[in-house]
Design goal:
Blueprint (H helix, E strand, L loop, with lengths): L10 H11 L6 H7 L8 H9 L6 H11 L3 H5 L3 E2 L13 E2 L3
Amino acid sequence: MGSARPKPARLAEKLLAIRSSLNGGASQNELIRLMRLEGELEQERISKYERGVLEPPLFVLAAYAKAANIYVEVLIEDDLDLPEFLPSRKKSEGIKRRK
């Protein structure tokens, strides 16, 4: 049997940073519209993702990555930072964190 995988420690922080950067600071409901997830996602869920209470499913992570124009690995890997400007002009692989 498999064991639980470790949760990305910085995921919630990155999700909040993406929303805060889009359209000069999108509301949670605006973010849902930007990600084209109306009817599939509610504002309360976005809040829980941003607070680290819930981990978003893969389709939501993919929508965040698409909205920010980054690779999904940037969200998942703790040793990668978001690019300075979002959405990124060119699809971004993130910025390697200094140790």
